[in-house]
Design goal:
The protein has about 230 residues and is mainly alpha-helical. The chain has one domain (about 20-220): MetI-like (MetI-like fold), CATH 1.10.3720. About 80% of the residues lie in helices and about 0% in strands. It is built from 9 helices and no strands. α2 (about 15-50) crosses α5.
Length: about 230
């Protein structure tokens, strides 16, 4: 009896049929946000870590400050500040753009630290050996040091990327029509918990493959034991 009641509340077939297209539309938006955040956040994080390699004190202080701020602040706080605060400064951005920018900056902050740790883990002798062959500093970095560092950073970077892209659900507080927003709206109209169960299924459908892909990438680039 209890199990039947659970199914009626969270797995109502009629509500599945009615609100399925809405949840699917939200899933598309979630995928768009996740893809944009991954590309922008990782690229910016790598760029910042690469700038730090040149040891320009003023720039390094700015980068460290940026990283510390965005690693310390909860993403939801930054999203709300950007969405409601920027218009007062004369800059109005859509909810989608705000979500993308904030999550990209958060991912960039964590990615920069991961890349930087990877670069520091490359033995100094690799730099010296590359320079001894006649390569310039930038050439040694790009062709010798960076490839080794990237391989080291794959496991922590994939895990952090998955964790941050799941924060796309925070977009519901500013009206981004992603999965949770669509599910919450559907729940309000239907008075049933089924839309939330549908949202859970949608998130699993999206992020389980992300997790599997992350595992595959880790296996591909991990160091082989002899």
């Amino acid at each position: 009896m209890e199990w039947q009641r659970f199914l009626e509340v969270f797995a109502n077939p009629a509500i599945f049929r009615t609100y399925g297209p809405n949840i699917a539309a939200g899933a598309v938006v979630t995928l768009q946000v996740a893809a944009a955040v991954i590309v922008t956040g990782i690229a910016l994080g790598l760029a910042l870590a690469s700038v730090r390699v040149y040891r320009i004190r003023a720039l390094n202080l700015l980068i460290v400050g940026f990283v510390d701020i965005f690693r310390a602040l909860p993403p939801l706080v930054v999203i709300l500040l950007a969405f409601f605060g920027l218009p007062n400064a004369g800059l109005s951005l859509s909810a989608f753009v705000v979500l993308w920018l904030v999550l990209s900056l958060v991912l960039a902050a964590f990615a920069e630290e991961i890349f930087w740790a990877g670069l520091l883990s490359v033995p100094k002798g690799q730099w010296e050996a590359a320079r001894s062959t006649g390569l310039g500093f930038t050439q040694a970095y790009v062709y010798v040091v960076l490839p080794q560092a990237l391989r080291i950073t794959v496991p922590p970077l994939t895990n952090r990327t998955i964790a941050i892209t799941k924060n796309s659900a925070l977009g519901t507080v500013i009206g981004v029509p992603e999965i949770l927003n669509q599910a919450s709206t559907a729940q309000s109209f239907s008075g049933s918990g089924t839309p939330l169960f549908m949202a859970a299924i949608a998130y699993l459908a999206i992020f389980v493959p992300f997790v599997a892909l992350g595992r595959a990438i880790e296996r591909r680039f991990r160091w082989k034991r002899r």
